[in-house]
Specification:
Helices cover 57% and strands 1% of the residues. It has 15 helices and two strands. It has a two-stranded antiparallel ribbon with strand order 1-2. Strand 1 and strand 2 form a beta hairpin. Helix 8 crosses helix 10 and helix 10 packs across helix 13. The radius of gyration is 20 Å and the shape is globular.
């Protein structure tokens, strides 16, 4: 039986792909991964996505030690996923590719660091915990040996993404939305920031524009804090409407900066479908919320599979507290007939 391949659509800022198109691209370049549970983890368990997840964890750990801001970390993780999706079997070392993505992201975000410094921090973070040394003690011979592989990987990454360096920052958009909504920093704003950052461990930033990511994170964080008092309200269940389907196109939402500047409301009423005011569709919000929630559930459920995901994300495990919140919140929606979709 033939299937129709969903093509990506290029917006004025970036090319976004539907989830089904990502799966199609991965399976067209590598033998399909045997499925043991009706294909629920067809993305997470794909060899390319396993490598991407580990690279994202490594990059975040290195970036934290160097002191890169969140936007640089997110851009590096986005580059990792874009590279593995477009070229799922890179001929370069996984570690070299991860470092190269961080190096490229630092230049894209104008948070430039010397390559030698990035190599030194990467080397230290690759050592076992008990054997780590001071960054200043890393011999020049070590970084010089790492340099050729990383520079070759840099060229590979740029070729894989088609030298398309355009992007918008979900983190900056999220701050603007949170301020408009006037949400408390201690719970809702902080939870949304965690959700936003953890979404970069998945393919969601490849599927959706930054404004959808920011709006979805704020929407889910608000429901987590208010869902227990509003379980009888259809607005919570609205996020898991079973009518949600994968879009036929690759485009998701609209350009974040343009939407915010074109018609920016003075405040947000989080009890309403406020995202519509920014050109974000309810279908996109549903898609983001369902996928990120299902991602967290992988670490909430005590199963053999969960142990594998926890090991895969060692040193970069998505927030355990958030996984618990998502799990408890999802259990409150037990009457929902929505079928989870993994990221």
């Amino acid at each position: 039986m033939s299937t129709t391949r969903m093509e990506p659509v290029t917006t004025d800022r970036h090319t976004f792909m539907s989830r089904s198109h990502i799966v199609s691209m991965l399976n067209s370049s590598v033998a399909a991964v045997p499925q043991t549970n009706s294909g629920r983890h067809e993305l997470l368990d794909h060899p390319a996505m396993v490598s991407a997840a580990r690279s994202c964890v490594f990059v975040k750990e290195v970036a934290r030690s160097i002191g890169f801001p969140a936007r640089t970390v997110g851009t590096a993780q986005l580059l990792i996923h874009r590279t593995y999706i477009c070229r799922s079997t890179p001929p370069v070392a996984t570690s070299d590719l991860a470092i190269a993505c961080l190096f490229v992201a630092a230049k894209m975000e104008e948070t430039i660091k010397r390559l030698r410094d990035i190599l030194a921090y990467s080397y230290v973070n690759s050592l076992p915990d008990g054997a780590r040394i001071d960054v200043q003690s890393v011999p020049t011979a070590v970084t010089d040996k790492m340099r050729p592989g990383v520079l070759a990987s840099e060229q590979y990454v740029m070729g894989a993404i088609g030298f398309d360096f355009r992007t918008t920052h979900a983190h900056l958009l999220y701050v603007k939305l949170a301020k408009l909504a006037g949400v408390p920093k201690a719970n809702i704003a902080a939870d949304g920031w965690t959700i936003l950052s953890d979404s970069y461990f998945t393919t969601l930033p490849v599927q959706y524009p930054s404004l959808v990511i920011a709006a979805g994170a704020l929407c889910l964080a608000w429901n987590l804090c208010n869902g227990s008092q509003r379980t009888g309200n259809n607005h919570v269940f609205h996020l898991f409407d079973n009518s949600m389907r994968d879009s036929k196109g690759g485009r998701r939402g609209t350009n974040g900066s343009a939407a915010l500047s074109r018609r920016r409301p003075m405040s947000l009423d989080l009890n309403s479908d406020w995202w519509l005011d920014f050109g974000v569709t309810t279908e996109d919000i549903q898609g983001f919320v369902r996928q990120i929630a299902d991602f967290y559930l992988l670490f909430f459920n005590s199963t053999v599979a969960s142990a594998e995901y926890i090991e895969r994300h060692k040193n970069g495990l998505p927030s355990k507290e958030m996984s618990q919140k998502i799990g408890q919140w999802r259990m409150q929606l037990c009457n929902s007939t929505a079928t989870p979709i993994s990221p």
